[in-house]
Amino acid sequence: MEAGSEENLKTIDYCLDAAPVVTPAMLRMAAFMRERYFCTLFDAVRVMLPAGLWFDTKNVISLTEDRSWQEKNIRQEGATQVLEFLSDLGGSTEEKALRQVVEDVAVLEKALAYLQKKKWITAQQDFMSRGSDKTEKIAVLNSSAEEALEYAQRRPKSAAAQKAVLELLCNLGTVSVKELCYFTGAKPATVKRLAELGYVTLTEREVLRCRQIKPVAVTGPLALNPEQTEAYEGILRQMRQENPGSALLYGVTGSGKTAVYLKLIQSCLDAGKSAMLLVPEIALTPQLLSLLAGHFGDRVAVLHSSLPAGERYDQWKRVRNGEAKVVVGTRSAVFAPAVDLGLLILDEEQEHSYKSESNPRYNAKEIALYRGLKDKCLVLFGSATPSVETMYHARQGHHRLYRLKNRYNGKALPYVRMVDMRQELKEGNDLSFSLDLREAIWNTHKDGKQTILFLNRRGNARALVCVDCRQAPECPRCSARLTYHSANERLMCHYCGYSQPTPRRCPHCNGPLKPIGTGTQKAQRELAQLFPELEVARMDADTVSAVNTHEKILERFEQEKVPVLIGTQMVAKGLNLPDVTLVGVLDADLGLYTSSFRAAETTFNMLTQVVGRAGRGETPGQAIIQTLAPEHEILKLAARQDYDGFYNLEIRLRQLQNCPPFADQVELTFSGQEEGAVLRGAAKFRDSLLACLGLPQYNSQKCTVLGPAPCPVPKINYNYRYRLTLRCALDKPLRELIAHLLRQFAKDGENRGVSAFADVNGYD
Fold this sequence. Notes:
36% of the residues lie in helices and 21% in strands. The protein has 24 helices and 28 strands. β21 (536-539), α19 (550-559) and β22 (564-567) form a beta-alpha-beta unit. α1 crosses α2 (41-48), α6 packs antiparallel against α7 (160-172) and α20 runs parallel beside α21.
């Protein structure tokens, strides 16, 4: 279209936002995500913005002035009911209300199309914001103080409230109506009457919904020991470079990495820049928030998925407007619109939760590196057990490495003992707690200290098994056994949410059912039987809710000195509780035998992290690891907290397998309700990919294609799942090829009912 031509131009119906919310930098990031994670631009932008910015549509159906339909015999099914319903409601209603009279959606759509064609109705689409700005009414004195006081003096005693309102406004000039009524005892109607008389003007102003953060008491400037100071000064010099790049702060548990973060954030603020601190779990934010609030006050904003939509939207606005210079949050906070970002920290960077499991399947660590490159800010990874990939890149010189080899207070790491549960079974102990752990829990309580028990499985038991036929109840929707929960006497599926009452006898042979395995519920019940006088708190997905939050559970454990806290991975990392001197691991080898190539790394990291919760105060700590495989090398290394030994062992295995960091692993998952169609679709995709890789332009690509094979859980919620695994260097030509094949797969009619998606370096 030529410049200045008005042909094909459309009028603007709505201005959805007063100012642009998607910046050019965000669009560039969305383009990066689309290419890297095989998603659409819309999906990428959607995950960047808070829910409060999105809009819902509302279709409003209205009668026109043409009422000739009243004299006609209308044969279109449902049309007469729609017209009469609209007439009864005054001529207009929402489309969803019409479903009360025409329940069949297809019939309703045809009727509406027919009536619009006849020009008897019109349809208008309205947009409603999912989140709205919270406002409050403000009262402003609209006359001179002398005039207002003169009027107040002339008021009779029955109008004492008006007098009190005017006198307060004469002193303050402007005050919220809520506060005005609170301090004077007047009612909102009194203020409204003064506005009608012209003495007061009522306006509205935006109020940000931000919950109060309890700051810790800060007695003086933050003091670092010599080792921390050396790391801080080195990172600070790097941060002040024109292109600071990335760094890894590798320090043992309790070495004081958080103190180094605080000093770096303060230096960042002193330079007029903003900082961002990401944590892997929401459970880690309460302690961290209090600490940050103590040092930086109301300049702190928090962003995570558990916040109400309105509050999260307001926190996002504070960051965008530059009011909040320190952002703390979980994975999605990496997209926060921080102004002039100078430092981006990812604490506990080894955690899987930095990787999204839903579309777009982004990795917050990669997004952080992208932002660091574009914003020219330092990206700092921190961990006591860095991921193999991050440590490899640090040793290769891609990240600068800083180390903290000792605990902050100079104390030794916890003393660790391993207990062979096979021997316990031989001696007749079939409980979840060994004799050594029981004795240690009681002695710890007698000393006035606290215990953390770690078991990474919620529920009462892994399954119920029939003693006679050996069958276990399974989920009808998934290829997984149902987990027994004793709290509500139900069997539950942890994949799709299906649940059913616990049967008294085996549904197949009417034999007796016996629980096998141990979950946090069962461990808590056993502990109550062993030590009736000990109070036990539990923190897992079953106990944490909107009312009983992580904050409340941890606050009660710390302040009320609850003797024992048992939980899943929520209690394994990031918590600084000085009175915890004992850590018990109930089933250390639980995650060792999964299909993921990261199984050993996950187990080592989890054990090392949870052991590090003990002895962080003045009293030395100890840990007891219970296992059925005490001879396993990974468990021995974890007990010694020998990260370097683990890394040297693991990196050789990764190189032999051609796994990350030596290559990318792309998993292409195919799902659908017909297993045969899913398998055929996966095989067809594989054949197309292999054929393309044989073309001359891809001769340089070294790509191993494995599968199709069933996923670790082959069926979830009635959908069968098969997977292709690619190990390759995922460069641009190969990404474009995979994206093209995914688009063609979706267009192919033979694949109807089968969906496919790609996940780069994902976690099972």
